[in-house]
């Protein structure tokens, strides 16, 4: 595939091994070592909103699980059905039960209209809101609703690290915590990793959970969710290129927005804020054969991906006692396709990708 959907931009070993000198000097390679702490400090200083600090984790999934355990969330947790399975698996690992919520037709995310009725029907310990595709919208209305019901709000911002709301404020300040992924597929991709952004009052509990629940004498709920010194060193190297990556990705996203002006019935994200753009999601008209469109693009050398498919409430292996109604999530899962965005894309590559995209869309969406 000339243009694969994912093309990670990872630093060469010579760029990150130099950061390991302090780890070797102290003979310490995990358990909150010096390289880990330096990466965490730089993330806090460069990407955290005021009043919050970064806590590194072994993955984005581990970050959500750690938040649930640290806050002692038990029982039912509400999540959107239109999300990546990691959201579901994180709450399962915390011993919680999912309550599936539909999403908005316009934002592709769960909001007050979708969450409110379910809070009336179920005794919910927490709501996990998802920034779909890393979009950066203001979640204040949902935050106020949850606060009024004394329900914890956790924000799964897996693909949104480095993004800003329309106000210019950094993401990371909404909900009790926001969780981000540092997976190789993300803009700040380091292989495997994650980060929580929380205020200082939560930091000791979160770190305890990430270190097997170990305390001074008593053992609480926890697991091994720490980031190693080696992965942290890669993180320091990538962080040095991060703003350059985001700037390039935003420019590519704008080229896609420009392309879509030719197809009035195609739906790009509405009011997305200023995301870092892991990928570019497009909702296709119902009449388009999505599988055939993806296949046609592949034949031309461009790999597209269908996210988040299927809707989670329809993807469970086990039977549920509840019958979930999430029609918008179902429609979105069948009609949404993501286009690739690369941190290291050259101008000529971008133009070739846009040209392939236009040819494919012309074939399937004439007059759309």
Structural write-up:
With 368 residues, the chain is an alpha/beta fold. The chain folds into 2 domains: 13-239, Type I PLP-dependent aspartate aminotransferase-like (Major domain) (Aspartate Aminotransferase, domain 2, 3-Layer(aba) Sandwich); 243-364, Alpha-Beta Complex (Aspartate Aminotransferase, domain 1), CATH 3.90.1150. The chain is built from 13 helices and 10 strands. The strands form 2 sheets. It has a 7-stranded mixed β-sheet with strand order 1-7-6-5-4-2-3, with helices on both faces. A 3-stranded antiparallel β-sheet has the order 8-10-9. The chain starts with 12 loop residues before the first helix and ends with a helix. The model has no long low-confidence stretch (mean pLDDT 95).
What distinguishing features does this structure have?
368 residues, Aspartate Aminotransferase, domain 2, Aspartate Aminotransferase, domain 1, 2 domains, seven-stranded mixed beta sheet, three-stranded antiparallel beta sheet, 13 helices, 10 strands
SSE blueprint and pairings:
Blueprint: H1 13-16, H2 21-26, H3 34-47, E1 53-57, H4 60-70, E2 76-80, H5 85-93, E3 97-101, H6 112-121, E4 124-130, H7 140-148, E5 152-156, E6 177-181, E7 194-198, H8 203-210, H9 229-239, H10 242-260, E8 279-283, H11 290-299, E9 305-306, H12 327-335, E10 336-340, H13 347-364
Parallel strand pairs: 2-3, 2-4, 4-5, 5-6
Antiparallel strand pairs: 1-7, 6-7, 8-10, 9-10
Helix pairs in contact: 3-9, 4-5, 4-8
């Amino acid at each position: 595939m000339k243009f694969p959907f994912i093309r990670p931009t990872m630093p060469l070993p010579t760029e990150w091994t130099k950061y390991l000198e302090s780890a070797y000097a102290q003979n310490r390679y995990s358990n909150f070592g010096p390289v880990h702490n330096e990466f965490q400090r730089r993330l806090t200083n460069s990407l955290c909103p005021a009043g919050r600090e970064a806590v590194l984790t072994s993955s984005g999934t581990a970050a959500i699980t750690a938040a649930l355990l640290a806050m002692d969330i038990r029982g039912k947790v509400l999540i959107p059905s239109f999300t990546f399975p990691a959201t579901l698996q994180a709450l399962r690992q915390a011993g919680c039960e999912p309550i599936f919520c539909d999403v908005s037709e316009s934002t592709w995310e769960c909001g007050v209209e979708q969450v409110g009725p379910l809070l009336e029907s179920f005794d919910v310990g927490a709501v996990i809101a998802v920034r779909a595709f890393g979009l950066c919208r203001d979640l204040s209305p949902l935050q106020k609703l949850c606060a009024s019901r004394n329900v914890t709000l956790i924000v799964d911002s897996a693909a949104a690290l480095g993004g800003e709301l329309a106000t210019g404020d950094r993401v990371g300040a909404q909900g009790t915590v926001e969780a981000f992924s540092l997976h190789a597929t993300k803009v700040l991709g380091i292989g495997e990793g994650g980060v929580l952004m929380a205020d200082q009052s939560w930091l000791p509990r979160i770190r305890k959970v990430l270190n097997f629940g170990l305390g001074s004498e008593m053992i609480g709920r926890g697991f091994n969710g720490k980031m190693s010194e080696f992965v942290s060193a890669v993180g320091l190297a990538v962080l040095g290129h991060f703003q350059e990556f985001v700037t390039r990705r935003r420019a590519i996203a704008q080229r896609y927005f420009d392309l879509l002006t030719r197809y009035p019935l195609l739906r790009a994200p509405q009011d997305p804020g200023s995301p870092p753009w892991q990928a570019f999601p497009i909702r296709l008209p119902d009449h388009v054969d999505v599988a055939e469109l993806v296949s046609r693009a592949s034949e031309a050398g461009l790999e597209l991906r269908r996210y988040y498919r299927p809707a989670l409430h329809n993807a469970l292996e086990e039977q549920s006692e509840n019958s979930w109604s999430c029609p918008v999530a179902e429609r979105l899962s069948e009609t949404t396709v993501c286009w690739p965005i690369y941190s290291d894309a050259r101008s000529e590559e971008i133009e070739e990708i846009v040209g392939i995209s236009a040819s494919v869309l012309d074939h399937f969406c004439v007059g759309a």
